Amino acid sequence: MKNLSKVLLYYAWIPFIASLPGFVLNLCGLSTINILVVPLLTAAIYICLRKKLDIVLAAKVNGLIFLMLLACFTVMMLFSSGNIEGILMSNFSWLIIPFAPIMLILVLMGENLLLYATALLTYATAFLVSAALGKVNLKRIWLPVGLTALCLLANTVLYQNRPSVKYAGHGFEYMHGFSSTDFTDYMVYSQNSKLVTPDSEVSLIIEREEDMPKMDGAEACYPLYAAFAKAVYQDIDLIESRWLEETENPYDNGKIVTFTNSVYGLERLILGGDDPEKYGEGVDLFFGARPSASQLQIAEDYGVELEITPIGREAFVFFVEEHNPIDNLTTEQLKAIYHGDITNWSEAGGKNQKILAFQRPQNSGSQTMMEYFMGDVSLKEPQTYEKVSAMEGVIKQVAQYNNESGAIGYSFRYFLEELNQEKGVKLLSVDGVYPSLENIENGTYPLTTSVCLITRKNDPNPYVQKMIDFILSETGQSIVTKTGYAGVAK
Question: Torsions phi, psi of 481, nearest 5?
């Protein structure tokens, strides 16, 4: 019983006391330095109380605690595939309950790794300090040292390949967190602009800033509608440059020509005027794929009638990693793969290999198109991974395409070929037809779809309709084709 109380002292009470300042550091936004402060305070406690503690017992206990926690941590990492943010991995927190003073805030912030590293380093420091003070013989520790090295190596590999990194897609690095593509050279105020220019004189020029319809759209459409704005909106380069210099909102990427994404952009079109706190003044023109059923329902619920105008043509494409021997799939095979009936490439004429069929997030342009493609055939549950959100806690994210053996994904041709979004992939022919621009234009590719301009019906701004007319004109269509899309069918 006496030794048990000492074990609890070394395992619980000393780390608890050492981690108390960590709570204050968390509140001050200095949580990162806990990884040094807590172990150092633990070492200081041992040094100060060395004459009152059983130092030899402390060395043995702390060494065993460290190895036990490290082994448990490694096992949990193996089961969670390196995902330290998931519910499964959170069970490890119960083993380091002495660190409760700093645990709550770090877990809520999603700083699990910092918490676990602090705990493990604390016990490792306690072992080394108590072993040194107690003059413990360290000559025969090759086995625990080897086990520690093996666990650390395994955890490093698992962490670097965790699902939240492996399946997060391209991330959102540009356009203030809304884009995975660097559109610097496509901005309307860019000095080295890659935006196309019309082939002939523009018949429509909007001179007053207040008359210019505000734009938003899908990621792949940004170079297209930015080119429309550059051609029609007078001095738009100066307007946007001035706005970006003056705005205090770090998430603004434009005043009139803006970019968010398919989900948020359509919400700005539908709800902008009703929720200015969230959507600002909203937008007047949205460029992208046609809305999903749920987005149309939102518009209906708010009494907003949408007008969908096809302004170009695009190919909905499927792609695999470049070494996959499959070059063509039928529409029936694609539906069977994404329904879950075909799970191995050998069933589609390929090699004996499991199919990793990736999907896209709900209401994204490509996911909406996929739902239209599937028709009455249901999509199987997508692969997901857990991710921590500071506001929502642990949430599930749809696993996005990772270029690994056996993978298949879908997108739009322009996004893949013109914006070069995926490396080491090849587009598949569908029903024997390759998704070339020529086959989109002649209509032989079976999954040709429309690039749409979505507006509110009867919009009071007369320039909204004028923009629709201009985009459908010969001059507007020249911008569509020079950007890399096929024009509307004549």
Answer: -70, -35
- Length of the chain measured in residues: 490
Q: Does the pLDDT of residue 305 top 70, yes or no?
A: yes
Tokens of 163: 């699902």
Cα 120 from Cα 135, distance rounded (Å): 22
Distance separating alpha carbons of residues 34 and 22, to the nearest angstrom: 6
Positive or negative torsion for Cα 152, 399, 223, 281 = negative
In this structure, what is the dihedral angle of CA atoms 164, 78, 346, 398, given to the nearest 10 degrees?
A: -20
Q: 338 falls in which pLDDT band (50, 70, 90)?
A: very high
Q: Which two tokens stand for residue 135?
A: 């003059």
Cα separation, 334 vs 325, in Å, equals: 16
Tokens standing for residue 142:
């090759």
Give the pLDDT confidence score for residue 250 in this predicted structure. Answer: 54
Spatial separation of the C-alpha atoms in residues 47 and 53, rounded to whole Å: 10
| Distant-in-sequence, close-in-space partners of 9: CB < 8 Å, separation ≥ 6 | 53
Burial 352-363 (b: 16+ CB within 10 A, else e): eeebbbbbbeeb
Q: Please report the sign of the dihedral spanned by the C-alpha atoms of residue 309, residue 377, residue 399, residue 388.
A: positive
What are the structure tokens assigned to 19, written together? Answer: 């981690």
Among all chains, which residue has been given the structure tokens 């660097």? Answer: 182
Strands (E), 192-274: 215-217
Tokens coding 209: 């800033």
